[in-house]
């Protein structure tokens, strides 16, 4: 395994040009590096917490939606009869799978001190997907909300109110997932900026 | 008015610490600065085009929605009877006003070579609002789409189909506005990164 010092100077995945001073290792440099590793661990732990929250909420949302079928008659409401509810389920399931993957990548990075992909790919991959999936999840939950509000006044909700309550809970859980995904996106955006400035994850 | 040279070295709004070399002006520095000013003008013109497109599409969307009332009877559909359509109108109106303001700021910057607000405030203001309003607009348009799809099967669309067609057009225009707002957001994000790295808008 590479030492933190070699990682700090852009040893993995490139992007940073080593400065002339890098050839002279000083005690100050080493101290700085150790502090940076500690800070990075704390930062990564925070990201891991946000990923875990996103995963829990979006998985719960998807499960609540997929189990939302009342009765077996032809006139009883089922979640897959509504476009917006299918969209809510699909978006939450995608985000849950993505969060699971990111959690594995995050645990890998915390335990081994190297990123799963090359560093430059990893920071841009995280940020890009966080942004795209945040838009996807918000769009799905908004569509679900609009449908839920429309359904409220109709016979569907008067006859089987449990169906409407369960959809509403599912959508609310989806919004909570979006909140944590947005926070992850902020942190991964910050990581991209740090990487662009220093050519390494090891400076804050 | 300050010269581009003084702006380049973080003269407005700070954020950048002047390097020791900044004290020695060279012909090369001046040449570089002129090229940067040219590049910045082209970059700002591109942002202006995106802002103008956002403004046109979101204004058109808001106008299409607000004029969407059929008949004067109590059973004829009106846009303000539907929560999601009111949300679409509000979001598009807000984005139209914001884009108009940003267009003025952009024209100001191109013509006078200084930003309307202090530089650091301006770049973060632009980026923050672009991101927030992009989420808002996508959310509103998704909600509108979900309602429009639900309405399609009901009597409202069978009796007065013009109402549904006009809502759909308004929502589609809103999505086009979102697309250009997203592009503006990318460029203003790039400007923030440039500003954080160099402490000035004048480096690409």
Description:
The structure is a homodimer of 204-residue chains. Chain A is an all-alpha fold. Chain A has one domain. Chain A is built from six helices and no strands. Chain A has helices at residues 4-8, 27-66, 83-112, 119-152, 155-159, 161-198. Chain A is elongated. Mean pLDDT of chain A is 83; it is low at 1-30. At the A-B interface, helix 3, helix 4 and helix 6 of A face helix 3, helix 4 and helix 6 of B.
Question: Briefly, what is this?
Answer:
With 204 residues, chain A is mostly helical. Chain A is built from six helices and no strands.
In this structure, how is the largest beta sheet of chain A organized? Answer: none
The number of helical segments of chain A is 6
**Coarse structural class of chain A:** mainly alpha
**Biggest interface and residues each:** A-B, 19 and 19 residues
Cα-atom Rg of chain A, whole angstroms? 22 Å
Q: Give the terminus-to-terminus CA distance of chain A.
A: 23 Å
Q: In percent terms, what proportion of residues of chain A is strand?
A: under 5%
- Show unreliable segments of chain A: 1-30
Protein name (chains A, B): CASP-like protein
Organism (chains A, B): Cucumis sativus
Main location (chains A, B): membrane
Subcellular location (chains A, B): Cell membrane
